[in-house]
Design a protein that fits this description.
The structure holds 2 protein chains of 2 kinds.
Chain A (H helix, E strand, L loop, with lengths): L5 H17 L3 H18 L11 H17 L2 H24 L5 H8 L1 H5 L4 H31 L6 H32 L15 H20 L1
Chain B lengths: L14 H23 L11 H31 L1 H22 L4 H25 L1 H22 L6 H16 L1 H37 L23 E10 L2 E11 L4 E5 L6 H8 L6 E6 L11 E4 L12 H6 L10 H7 L15 H13 L5 E5 L7 H18 L2 E6 L10 E6 L2 E2 L18 H4 L18 E10 L7 E11 L4 E5 L6 H8 L7 E6 L2 E2 L7 E4 L12 H9 L5 H5 L3 H4 L3 H11 L16 H14 L4 E5 L7 H18 L2 E5 L3 H4 L5 E6 L2 E7 L13
Parallel strand pairs in B: 3-7, 3-8, 5-6, 6-7, 12-17, 12-18, 15-16, 16-17
Antiparallel strand pairs in B: 1-2, 1-4, 8-9, 10-11, 10-13, 13-14, 18-19
Helix pairs in contact in B: 1-2, 1-3, 2-3, 2-7, 3-7, 4-7, 5-6, 10-11, 11-12, 15-19
Classes of the chains: A mainly alpha, B alpha/beta.
Chain lengths: ~220, ~725
Amino acid sequence: MHRVGIIPKLVGLASLTVATGLNTGWVQLIAVGGVVLAAAAAARLPLRALPRLPPWLIVLTLAGLLFAVAGGGVGRYLRLVAFSLLFVLLSLLIAWTTDLGELAAALSRLGAPLRRLGLPVDEWALTAALSVRCLPLITDEIRTVIAAHRQRPAGRDPAQALVAVVDLATASMAAGIRRASDLGEAIATRGGTITAPRLPLRLGVRDIAALALVAAASVLPGVLT
Amino acid sequence: MATVARRPARGRLQPAALAAAATMAAICAGLVVVGSLLPALASLQLLAVVPFAVTAERHGLRALTAALVAAAAVACLVAGLGAATSLLTLAGLGGLVGTFRRHGRGFGSVCAAGLVVAPLAAGAADLVLLVFASYRRLVLENLRTQVHGLGAIIAHLSPLRPVARWMNHAALVLTAHWPIVVAILAAGGVAAALVLSWVLVGEVLGRLRWVADAEPYTLARVDSHATGDRREPSPVPVELTGVTRSFSGVEALAGIDLELESGEFVAIVGDNGSGKSTLARILAGAEPTAGTVRRAGDVGLGRAGGTALIGQRPDAQVLGLRVRDDIVWGLPDGHGTDIEALLEAVGLAGMGDRDTASLSGGQLQRVAVAAALARRPSLLISDESTAMVDPDGRRELVHLLADLPARRGMTVVHITHYEDELAAADRVLRLERGRLAAARPELAPPVAPPRRPARPVTSPPAPQSLPSSPGVAGARIVLSGVGYCYAHGTVWQHRALADVSLCVEPGEGVLVVGDNGCGKSTLAWVLAGLLAPTEGSCLVDGVPSQRRRGLVGLAFQHARLQLQRPTVAEEVAHAAGWLRAGIHSAFGQGLAATPGLHDRVAAALRAVGLDPALAGRSIEQLSGGQQRRLAIAGLLASGPRALVLDEPLAGLDEPGRQSLVSLLTELRALDGVTLVVVTHDPESLAGACPRTVRLHAGRVISDTHAQATDAGQWRCIA
């Protein structure tokens, strides 16, 4: 799963989401479940890594189950919950196994048709590559802003909570603008934006197998039912 | 409603706009991912409107589109298609608000736009549900079943039976007429979000207007590929005549006359604010306000044979995820570069495949030199590239730079505030308040540190909340077996601290040192109670630190992130907890209304050596050093028992460093505050903190006291 390229993952996620929107039957549920299981097995996802739902969400889900039993629609309810859980798990698997560094090349490849329409696809790919580069720095800064806020004596007033939101947003933006200005200078000192990263990106056997699997899981249930 | 670029691809994004789009996209993606993975924080998502609006307001729709695509791609991979869809909506809202702000439109225009956008949103929502009919039916039927089930349960209590019947009826009617219900919800939601965004963005942009002015004299608008100057790059020799550069009427550089020859190693020294960086930028091709710059050819910033620049902050100039990618970033013929030879030349042989995130500051600066050398520049400018590097890394870097004129025949301009780096230079230029003082190679006598006035003489009687009030002693901090894992219990789990046991006595001063990523900063967060240890305990006067947050104040390395209120006075009062009553104080009107507050703020500012006249200034107008002092003033005013500082000296010039060190020494000696300082520069701080704890890979590997008379006084059992 770690070695499956980014394109099958993006395409697979999108096609499964659309297929589920069009067909929410049991067969589709089993198909999505199969893909998630196969991906988890291929990724050797450790069991301890399964997301732990917050207690209030579990209570809410159980209450929903109670009402569903009383209302006589257990099957429907279980299908809805199962779909939600499966897609959360699929997102988690993709996030865990994907090297975000490939994102720019994938965007550049997937956006090829749009490029013919004159849209600046390379510019988008370049922005994506830089934003992946910034992501750890930015999350760190936002974490610090929130921590600085938590250090302050807390006000109980709801109005102050609203103002705190503005404070946090302003501090993050000020840091972001400074960060952007540094980044812009770094780009300029490398000679500006003449080239976009065009990494060689080929589909391997694993990618084609993965694409075939998600295509089957997306299309077959709809055909069968 | 999403803003899709209708124009064809012309007028490429300039570096400044591209960088803003990338940074803001990262913020948006971060917010939406957190919001969609943690349902409790879902409302955070709306905040992503602000970065989108700021992008649109400053750089236009083309940058906004790039930001949207980048953020959506990242969010889609990390949190699924739903997160990407939220981003589309938020970018639409942000784009609308930002564009109106850009063109100076008022609230009326927003309301008018809302009248257009709300029905569109309603139509789009209905259309999506119409297409995905199966999913819609599943959700709606579930809704009916749930209400029916709830009704069946409460119907067991006979008085509630009519309520149950009414609920069932309502659910049936609402789900049967879903197109109308969904349309009303979507339109109302978008209209409300638009108004909320307008208010939020207006408030944030209002406070940020100083940031635009304070932004450094940026090169990001010097795009040598866009100027159409196709002359061969030939940045040296260069002759500056009467060069002046002013910012909003204040001269940063005045009447500079300077010639640079080929193959020289020139050092430029000066304190913070002396115009060093401005001069570097003029040499790199930025336009002066007055005077002339004569070169043989084009300055060729970043082009082969042109000018290369290495900046101050190591992490800010890295563009690639791996060392290899970073070196060739932006080179048209990048794949033909001999990366191994370049890495060997800068002393990083064989590190081409390392993640840039795993390198230390000194190593990153050497990667930057390699990236510069890959362009075989004629002129290399180092703009304080040694300022944030540890002493060993600093020596190696200066040695590397000094070698280049002889080995590669390039001109090197090294800007610094360290006097000991001047020895290798052919020429030394000294900048003082924007003017060239004298081009003398000999060392100047060290500048005397501006000490803060002795407190008993000039200070007013200390207010009660200040820690200098008699009787307040520092806290005792005891860590036993402290371990910390980030993302504990997930696939991303990684350990930062393991089995750390320490005891810091009241009033003691401790330095925490170690390499990048050794857990220093995590330890600081644990001490301040901002992270609860995953194993062991951190007790402040016997109570777990996370339960007594605020008692141990933490000053972050990046001081701006600590400051929250718009003006200096409000910031101090807010940090100290002197303002508590309601919305008026929150919006700053309580400051004038609270008696005596003015004097307390002034005293708090004086305590850290800041001029009380700054009280009315915007925090964005302060320099980096002033912001750090302000952050410390706020912490001190809140009356902490201990103070933890993360890299307090980074980026300060020599006078700034010396006065901060003497401030820390005094705090501990006079006020008895327990002091823990995380640093990579233990030499400068040894006077303030005699004890040094060294961390490696999350563990304490040594714990030593400097040879001091008081070493016996603080005996500690670790």
